[in-house]
Amino acid sequence: MNLDFTDAENAFRAEVRAFVRDALPPAIRDKVANGIHLCRDEHLQWQRLLYERGGWSGPGWPKEFGGPGWSPVEQYIFEEECALGGAPRLVPFGIKMVAPVIMAFGNRQQQERFLPKILSAEEWWCQGYSEPGAGSDLASLRTRAIRRGDKYIVNGQKTWNTLGQHADWIFCLVRTDPEAKAQRGISFLLIDMKSPGIAVRPIVTLDGAHEVNEIWFEDVEVPVENLVGEENKGWTCAKFLLGHERSNIAGIGIAKRELARAKRIAAVETKRGRPLIEDPLFAARLAEIEIDLMALEITNLRALSAEAENKAPGPEASILKIKGTELQQAISELILQAVGPYALPFMGAAPGPAHAANRAAQYLNLRKLSIYGGSNEIQKNIVAQMILEL
Fold first, then answer.
1. Alpha helix stretches (DSSP H) within 24-148
2. What is the Cα–Cα distance from 85 to 133, expressed in whole angstroms?
3. What is the distance between the alpha carbons of residues 361 and 278, in angstroms, rounded to a whole number?
4. Which of 27, 37, 110, 306 is the most exposed place for a label (fewest CB within 10 A)?
C-alpha cells in the first residue's frame, strides 16, 4: 500500500489549485470564508463553472455519463483543493447521492433524462429519506405509495430536507408493501417537486437559518416510469446511496482549512497580553486536534488506496464519518473559544473583528454533522458489529 502521491497526482493538484484560484468568484469565496450561507444562484454558479471545465461538477462520475472519470485519489485531491481554496462544497443531493443510484440501478431512459441536468446544474435535488418516526431507524418509514395503473399515489411526510426549498426534484423512499418486513416493501421514487399535492414548510434551526424543511405529500401522482430499480426493493438503493453519502462526509479538506483559520485567529487574539496561540492549554488542544486530523487523513488515504485496488468501500466509511464530523465540531468550538465574547451576537452585525462574525452561528449549525447521514451512534454500532465483531 503506497500512500504517497505520484508526480501525476501532484500535477493534477496544481491544476485544480490554479483553477479554483482563478475561477472562483470572490464574492462566493468571501462568504465561505466568513461562514455565511450561500444563496441558490451562488451554489449553481460554482457548479456550472466546474461543469464547463469538463464535467468537474461530477468529480466521482465516469466519462460515460459526462464526468471527468477521476480516480478515487484524484477525487480526494479535488475536494481538498476546493476546500483549501475557499470554494463551497458541492450540494451533494443530485451529484453525489441520487446520480450514483440512477447510474447503478436506473434504466437507460432515466439516465438520459436526469443525469445531464444534474451534472450541468439545471435541476436541483433534495433528499426524501427521514421522517418524524424514521430517522436513524430509516426502515420504519411510513410514507405510502399505492400503485394505480401507470401512477403511484404518494401520501406522507418527510423531514429535515436540506435546501428542499430550492429543489426541482426529490428522491424518496416510500412504502409500497405495508405487509412486508421493515426493509422489504420499500421503493425508490423520483418525484417532481412541482407535482400538485406537495407542500414545503420551513424549519428554522438553532443558528437562525432556514436550511431544512419538512415536505408533505397529499395524493401526489408519480409516474411509474420514475421508479428506480424494482418495486419493493428500494432498500438496496437506499443502502447504496448511504454508502456514498458517508464516504464523502469526513470533510478533511474543510477541517484543514478551518484549523488553519483557528491558528490565524489565535495568533492575533490575546490572553493576558500574549497571543492566544502561546497559551499552553489552547496550544495543547490545537495540537491534539491537528494530530487527530492527520491520523484521519491517513485512514482516508488507506481507504482510497483500497478502493483504487477495486476493493469495495466497507464499514470504514462509518469511521471516517464519526471522526471527521467530530473533528469539524471540535475545530468550530476552538474558534468560538478563541474569539470569546465577540461570538455572542450571532444574528445581525457583529461588534468585534471580522474573523469573529458568524462564528457562533457556524458553531451551532455544525452540531448537525454528527446526526445527519446516519447518526454517529448508529455508525458506532456498525463499527462494533462489522469490524470489531462484537
1. 26-33, 40-52, 72-84, 92, 99-105, 108-119
2. 40
3. 27
4. 27
* pLDDT tens for the chain, residues 1 to 390: 566 789 999 999 999 999 999 999 999 999 998 888 899 999 999 999 999 999 999 999 999 999 999 988 899 999 999 999 999 999 999 999 999 999 999 999 999 999 999 999 999 999 999 999 887 788 889 999 999 999 999 999 999 999 999 999 999 999 999 998 888 899 999 999 999 999 999 999 888 889 999 999 999 999 999 999 999 999 999 888 876 666 566 789 999 999 999 999 999 999 999 999 999 999 999 999 999 999 999 888 888 777 767 666 667 788 888 999 999 999 999 999 999 888 876 665 667 888 888 888 889 989 988 988 778 998 899 889 888 888
Residue 86 sits at the vertex; the CA angle it makes with 168 and 319, to the nearest 5 degrees, is 75
Instruction: Return d(Cα 286, Cα 169) in angstroms, integer.
Output: 42
Whose cell is 461588534? That residue is 351
Rounded Cα distance between 83 and 61, Å, is: 19
| Contact of 17 with 81, CB cutoff 8 Å | yes
Nearest to 35 by CA among 265, 271, 278: 265
The residue count for the chain: 390
Spot the catalytic one: 80, 131, 211, 245: 245
Is residue 245 annotated as a catalytic residue, yes or no? yes
175 - beta bridge partners?
144, 186
Helix (H) or strand (E) segment spanning residue 235: helix 234-247
DSSP class of residue 352 equals S
C-alpha cell at position 98: 441520487
Q: Which residue has the cell 502561546?
A: 278
